[in-house]
Write a structure and sequence with these properties.
A: about 400 residues; alpha+beta; Butyryl-CoA Dehydrogenase, subunit A, domain 2; 11 helices; about 50% helix; globular; B: alpha+beta; Butyryl-Coa Dehydrogenase, subunit A, domain 1
Chain lengths: ~400, ~450
């Protein structure tokens, strides 16, 4: 028999390492950087080098976003590769702290984009640098095709103009991957991504946001004013083609399971803490006894843990499909939708179950209930995921189902 | 009007009189004032029902063929240590056979079977040919599977329930008894009962755990087994037993004196055993009945495992049943999804397909997402059971998901068809009724 939905044996050392990092590095400074918003978590520098080491030279991949390039496997053999290992690593690290994971040098979403679509030359030039991702604009959130930022070719350079908001680690990163349109009259086909060095004089930091949660992670807003980048800074194919945007969006098939993994890790943290709290209060969760014959808190816990289990499995499924070169756009969105809403429901539910202990700042439960909300928003909101799932299930185009 | 009344036969009129009297009694304040209404209603209910109470089926004689000396068991499954969602070749074969049988035979028969409260014999016979009754029978005793078969049973259950959950229940129920005996029976019990499940004439049989009380807990049974000398004496009632009146063999859960919850092998025809009809909201093709156990005397050898079965085996039985019901819920939920997609794409309102609206489309997304989660959780629990790993947690979580999301999917299936979902022209109202069962049922099926 082959159906097996457990953590692969070969990834157990990685999971255990990531868990140690979460326990020994993230958790002890979790509250500190929640309070000191915008302060740089310098503790992460050493850790980042360590993770670079983990990423190098093996198909085991790392704990971050460097390893989501699609691998070809045509031999029909079952593969457990970097998509799965990355997801498993992220789950553990986000069990530690989501904000700190997002602040990990060289593990940004921009790195994902570069790793996924860059040419060999681009990989050589930009490899080893920290890349943030700038998509959202004040007037274009989920509707990324409505982007107003422009890129105009001028000799050997593109000239970028526009405004970008909600750039995770935007101030700390070395590079910003900026989405801009080559020709606004051509719609989404003309949207391309460009690598901009952080010290480019045309890239002006407007401000850092004050947020509900993931406060350890900086969120920057920029203005691009006649920002010139070399022609070679364009990621992917420079031609304006119908399918071009689909290529850009493909990045998200790879990164949605990663965000789902963040939500899954955070959800598990809240459940584990709550299980302890309930035990201290004399409530034990029994898996044999029917839920409704148990304490109401235990029944509620079981309900939340069941949603967690589904989110965990959907996330692993999406990553496993990517590892085996199966189209997973549907499953990636299912995972993101389920994990995102579960994370919010569970963390808020855990605060309720633990009462004042959960709500107070002595424990991390209240922080997790604040951190969770963004996971149902960025990388495609709940509603966008439902839209993607619906279009796939109903076989509808984006003009039929808007 | 008076003439029609006069023309009615005597019997009909007397029934009318009876009803009128009954109505007068029911409307009386006196009954409420003295708080006996409940009791009277119950007495009436039992009065009508007892008329249908029958002895259990006569049944065949089960005789031990050659005993192996020690019980035969299927081997634990092995894992390559990799995450994998692909069933093996053998499992795919079962799955495909189950799927085409469900599509060609079960689904077309489902509406009538629901109305008749009976699954056609040909369908039951054909599922026997699929091998569903012997999945849990060890190879030494004529079975076909060398390794434990929970995942295989899940895949088949899911496939058959895509056709119809009630028919799947009727067809799979006997296999639960064979699997229970194959997993925990003594050598003697295996030799006595299992050969019947590997032939063509598989007996109707039932694993009876559920009891007719609210908040039923399979670990706090009302059915008691008292020790009397060398014998066990069982008393109690078991609910929603598939094909109860035809069953030739039961495995009954009872709280055994000095042991706690345990399983007993009970042959039909035993003195004190009777069956009454117990129709329910759904699962109607399974002709559910209530098994009444009134001081039924059993030999010491009736205890499943003959003293070697442990408390954890009983818990495993309860949890394996839950996984089986999850499989059925997953298959039925998939049927809902597959049915509503073309419907909402075709159905026009306000000049376009209703599926062009997010309110409709998102409901379809949620069915897809939750159903996928239900399936994965069920597979995980079953595969852990096959490998001999702990699976109580995974089974409990799968059950929670399948109970809650399954019911929601049943409800949304009807909702998406609007008024058309409420009428029997479409199967979604049946699935609505059936999907409620997965959180209610305990025992009855086994993987």
């Amino acid at each position: 028999m082959t159906i097996n939905l457990e953590i692969p044996k070969k990834f157990k050392p990685l999971v255990s390492q990531a868990n140690q990092v979460a326990t020994e590095v993230f958790r002890p400074i979790s509250r500190k950087y929640d309070e000191a918003e915008h302060a740089y978590p310098k503790e992460l520098d050493m850790l980042a080098s360590l993770i670079d080491g983990m990423n190098e030279g093996s198909d085991i991949g790392g704990a971050g976003a460097a390893g989501v390039r699609r691998e070809k496997s045509d031999d029909g053999e079952n593969r457990n590769g970097s998509n799965l290992s990355t997801v498993l690593g992220i789950i553990e690290l986000c069990w530690g702290d989501v904000g700190l994971l997002l602040s990990m040098p060289r593990q940004g979403l921009g790195n994902s984009a570069i790793a996924s679509v860059a040419t060999e030359e681009q990989l050589k030039k930009y490899g080893g640098k920290w890349a943030a991702m700038a998509i959202t604009e004040p007037e274009a959130g989920s509707d990324s095709a409505a982007i107003r930022a422009t890129a105009v070719l001028d000799g050997d350079e593109y000239v970028l103009n526009g405004e970008k908001i909600f750039v995770t680690s935007g101030d700390r990163a070395d590079l910003i991957v900026v989405w801009a349109s080559l020709d606004r009259s051509k719609g989404r086909a003309a949207i391309k991504s460009f690598i901009v060095e952080r010290d480019n004089p045309g890239l002006k930091l407007d401000r850092l946001e004050h947020k509900l949660g993931i406060r350890a992670s900086d969120t920057a807003n920029f203005t691009l004013q006649d920002c010139r980048v070399p022609k070679e800074a364009l990621l992917g194919d420079p031609e304006v083609k119908e399918k071009g945007f689909a290529g850009v969006m493909e990045t998200f098939d790879n990164t949605r399971p990663l965000v789902a993994a963040m939500a899954v890790g955070l959800t598990r943290a809240a459940l584990e803490e709550t299980r302890k709290c309930l035990k201290e209060a004399g409530v034990k969760v029994d898996y044999d006894k029917p839920a409704l014959s148990q304490h109401a808190a235990a029944a509620r816990f079981l309900e939340m843990e069941a949603d967690y289990e589904a989110a965990w499995l959907l996330t692993l499924q999406a990553a496993w499909m990517a590892d085996n070169s199966k189209p997973n756009s549907l499953q990636a969105s299912m995972a993101k939708a389920k994990a995102g809403r579960t994370c919010v429901d569970v963390t808020l539910g855990c605060v309720e179950l633990c009462g004042a202990v959960g709500y107070g700042e002595n424990e991390l439960l209240e922080k997790w209930a604040r951190d969770s909300k963004i996971l149902d928003i960025f990388e495609g909101t709940q509603q966008i995921q439902l839209l993607i799932v619906a279009r796939q299930l109903l076989k509808k185009t984006s003009s039929e189902l808007r | 009007m008076t003439t029609t009344t006069e023309n009615k036969g005597m019997a009909e009129r007397s029934m009318g009189y009876g009803l009128r009297a009954l109505n007068r009694l029911a409307g009386s304040d006196l009954l409420d004032r003295i708080r006996i209404r409940k009791g009277v209603e119950k007495a009436l209910f039992q009065g009508t029902k007892n008329g249908f109470k029958t002895a259990t089926a006569a049944g065949r004689t089960f005789k031990a063929a050659q005993s192996l000396g020690k019980p035969a068991r299927q081997k634990k499954g092995k894992s390559k240590g990799l995450f994998d969602l692909t069933p093996d070749d053998e499992q795919q074969m079962f799955q495909e056979a189950g799927r085409s049988f469900a599509a060609d035979q079960i689904r077309p028969a489902a509406l009538k079977a629901d109305e008749d409260r009976e699954t056609p014999k040909e369908i039951l016979d054909q599922t026997v040919e699929l091998g569903v009754a012997m999945l849990g029978v060890p190879e030494e005793l004529g079975g076909v599977m060398t390794e434990q078969s929970a995942v295989t049973a899940v895949l088949i259950g899911e496939a058959l329930a895509h056709g119809d959950m009630g028919i799947a229940y009727a067809a799979l129920a006997p296999g639960a008894v064979a699997t229970a005996i194959g997993l925990w029976g003594s050598a003697e019990q295996e030799a006595t009962y299992l050969p019947a499940f590997t032939g063509e004439d598989v007996p109707a049989a039932a694993l009876a755990i559920l009891e007719p009380q609210p908040l039923f807990d399979p670990f706090a049974l009302e059915t008691k087994a008292k020790k009397k000398g060398e014998e066990w004496v069982l008393s109690g009632a078991k609910s929603l037993v598939a094909r109860a009146k035809d069953c030739e063999l039961f495995v009954v859960a009872a709280d055994a004196e000095g042991i706690g919850p345990a399983l007993f092998v009970v042959e039909s025809g035993a003195k004190g055993l009777s069956v009454e009809d117990e129709p329910a909201m759904g699962l109607r093709p399974a002709t559910t009945g209530r098994l009444l156990i009134d001081n039924v005397k059993l030999p010491a050898s009736a205890l499943l495992g003959e003293g070697n079965a442990k408390a954890k085996d009983y818990a495993a039985c309860v949890n394996r049943s839950r996984i089986a019901w999850c499989a059925l819920a997953t298959g039925t939920a998939q049927a809902v999804l597959d049915y509503v997609i073309p419907y909402v794409n075709d159905r026009q309102a306000f000049g376009e397909p209703v599926s062009n609206r997010q309110g409709v489309a998102f409901a379809v997304s949620d069915i897809g997402i939750e159903q996928n989660g239900m399936r994965l959780a069920t597979y995980r629990a079953a595969s852990r059971a096959d490998r001999g790993e702990s699976f109580a947690r995974e089974a409990a979580l799968a059950r929670r998901l399948c109970t809650q999301k399954g019911m929601q999917i049943g409800s949304d299936g009807v909702q998406l068809l609007g008024g058309h979902g409420f009428v029997k022209e479409h199967p979604v109202e049946r699935w609505y009724r059936d999907l409620r069962a997965s959180g209610v049922m305990e025992g009855a099926l086994l993987v």
